[in-house]
Amino acid sequence: MFAKIKSFLPDGYVLAILGTVVLASVLPARGWAVRPFDIATDVLITLLFFLHGAKLSREAVIQGLGHWRLHLLVLGSTFILFPILGLLTRAAAAPFLEPSLTAGLIFLCLLPSTVQSSIAFTAVGRGNVAAAVCAASASNLLGIFITPLLVHLLMPEAGAADATGGALKQVEAISLQLLLPFILGHLSRPLTAGWLGRRKALVGLVDRGSILFVVFTAFSAAVVGGLWTRLSAADLFGVLLASLLILIVALAATTAAARALGFKREDEVAIVFCGSKKSLASGVPMAGVLFPAAAVGPMIVPLMLFHQIQLMACAVLARRYAAKADAEEEATTGVDL
Predict the structure, then answer these.
(1) All domains of the chain in start order, with CATH
(2) Which of 12, 158, 324, 331 lies at a 20 to 30 A Cα distance from 147?
(3) Helix 301-336 and helix 12-26: axis angle, to 10°?
(4) DSSP class of residue 179?
(5) How far apart are CA 131 and CA 203, in angstroms?
(6) Cβ neighbours of residue 39 closer than 8 Å, sequence gap 6 or more
């Protein structure tokens, strides 16, 4: 019973993010402190994507590439279904929510899938882990190009085009800050893979610490710009409700599509977890590149709420998939006997 209750509670990382938001609200970076925080954030984000590239096994990519139908379905959910949901949500929520939050909702829907948690939940649910590795990694790599283009097309009111000089410059900026370190990290695997494998705690510290830096920097700029004078408790509840509805539709759609197309249970698990999730690790740095500094804080509020909701929902689903797999194994063993 305690384990079930615990799965619905915020994890330690989410609490750390919330604590960072509180700290930035009380003691935001101002004046001379802004530049050092900006530099430190850029360095940490570059290091983060270098480590992501170094951790990605080429063997896992090759093993997962054969499931092209699965990958197309995941990419279709991530970059077609979700943007449609974002447009519908923005239209429905516009009369009730502050404009920066409706922009944040659609930005959330334009992001790539998660990597670590998608793979972890697929493993817990006894799904096709190799395909999940490939699908989630492909989503993140393609997202470096697709997300800025979608932002340019669907969010002209957010100021992204003016901030970076158009879609091509958005892609260029994100490629230099995120893709180039990722590629260099992957090319460094012969030299760095063993060292990183022995220092997983350090990798995790950089992984999570870089996001906390981005959140602090973003919310500092937003708080100085009057964020909490514009947002109300009703706004936050509205974003929470909208995020929940988006996730429910995405989970239902990916499950129905996987079954309608005849995928095996293991593949269905990978499709559901890779096709219904959005990346906080990629989304926060992308927001920092794509939007003016003062706009990033409210822009990532929906993403932070969606992140926690998806973790709780997928934890429950993963256990159900695992129980189903256990039941199937028991039935097969019974037949064999």
Answers:
(1) 11-325 (1.20.1530.20)
(2) 12
(3) 180
(4) I
(5) 23
(6) none
Q: How many CB atoms are located within 10 Å of the residue 184 CB? A: 14
Other Cβ atoms closer than 10 A to 125: 27
> Cβ distance 265 to 332 under 8 Å?
no
CA diameter of the chain? 74
User: 188: helix, coil or strand?
Assistant: coil
Q: How long is the chain?
A: 337
Per-residue pLDDT tens digits for 36-48: 888 887 788 788 7
Distance CA 99, CA 97 (A): 6
Q: What is the DSSP letter of 8?
A: T
pTM over 0.70: yes
Q: Tokens 């759609």 correspond to what residue? A: 253
Of 7, 148, 128, residue with least CA distance to 69: 128
pLDDT per residue as tens digits for the range 60-78 = 666 656 688 999 999 999 9
HEC string of 267-327 equals HHHHHHHHHCCCCHHHHHHHHHHHCCHHHHHHHCHHHHHHHHHHHHHHHHHHHHHHHHHHH
